[in-house]
Each structure stands twice: as structure tokens, then as C-alpha cells.
Amino acid sequence: MKFCPKCGKLMIPRREKDKIVLICPQCKNTIEVTHSVEVGYRVKHEVEEEKRTKMAIVTGTERKLTEEERQLLEDYYKVFLETYMEAEETSSEEGSE
Ligand SMILES: [Zn+2]
């Protein structure tokens, strides 16, 4: 998981042309995804319980996330991982980078 260095919100992954960026929903701070960031996201699967707690924190409130909200966040990262994997495969086929 990647948190905004400016305001501490959870960064939302988004595809931009041929790359993936993380965007802060609050201050619109943008970070280009590097390989180390991607590895950080992969680790989250091993910390299911911890993840729920963190997600509750990053929403900026002390209440727990609703099932719908939690699902939404999980979907974001599922899409992010899949998209990023595809991008990796494509770029290696082209032999660039
Ligand atoms: Zn921010």
C-alpha cells in the first residue's frame, strides 16, 4: 500500500497511457509507480487482517468501513495489480526498458 506523503491518504492506482500512477484522492498528489511500489502492494495479500485496519485508518475516520466501501477499495487494487501485470508483460515483449 502507498500512502500520500503530503496528507497521508491512501493512494488510488490509475492507468495512464502506458504506465500506472498512484493518485491521492484528497490533494491530487501523483506518484508514478515503480517496481518497488508494486512489490509493496503484493505484500498486502499476506496481511489480510492488518489491511482492514489500515483501510479504516486511511479513510480518515475512526469508524469501520462498510462492506461496500471495503469491496470498492479491494477492487481498486485488484484492477491495479492485473493492469500492472499486463503492462509488465507487454513491455517485456517489446523489449523496451
Ligand atoms: Zn494527499
Can you tag this structure with a few keywords?
single chain, 97 residues, alpha+beta, 3-stranded antiparallel sheet, globular, binds zinc ion
Q: What would you say this structure looks like, in words?
A:
The chain has helices at residues 35-43, 48-58, 67-94, and strands at 12-16, 19-23, 30-32. It is an alpha+beta fold. It has one domain (12-94). It has a three-stranded antiparallel β-sheet with strand order 1-2-3, with helices on one face. The two termini are 25 Å apart. The mean pLDDT is 70. The structure holds zinc ion (ZN). Zinc ion (ZN) binds next to loops. Zinc ion (ZN) is lined by residues 4, 6-7, 9, 24, 26-27, 29.
The coarse overall form would be globular
Q: What percent strand?
A: 5-15%
Mean pLDDT across all amino acids: 70
Contiguous runs where pLDDT drops below 50 for at least 5 residues: none
Radius of gyration equals 14 Å
Q: What composes the largest sheet?
A: 3 strands, antiparallel
Chemical compounds bound to the protein: zinc ion
- The number of distinct β-strands equals 3
- Fraction of helical residues: 40-55%
The SS-based structural class is alpha+beta
Layout of helices and strands:
Elements: E1 12-16, E2 19-23, E3 30-32, H1 35-43, H2 48-58, H3 67-94
Bound molecules: zinc ion.
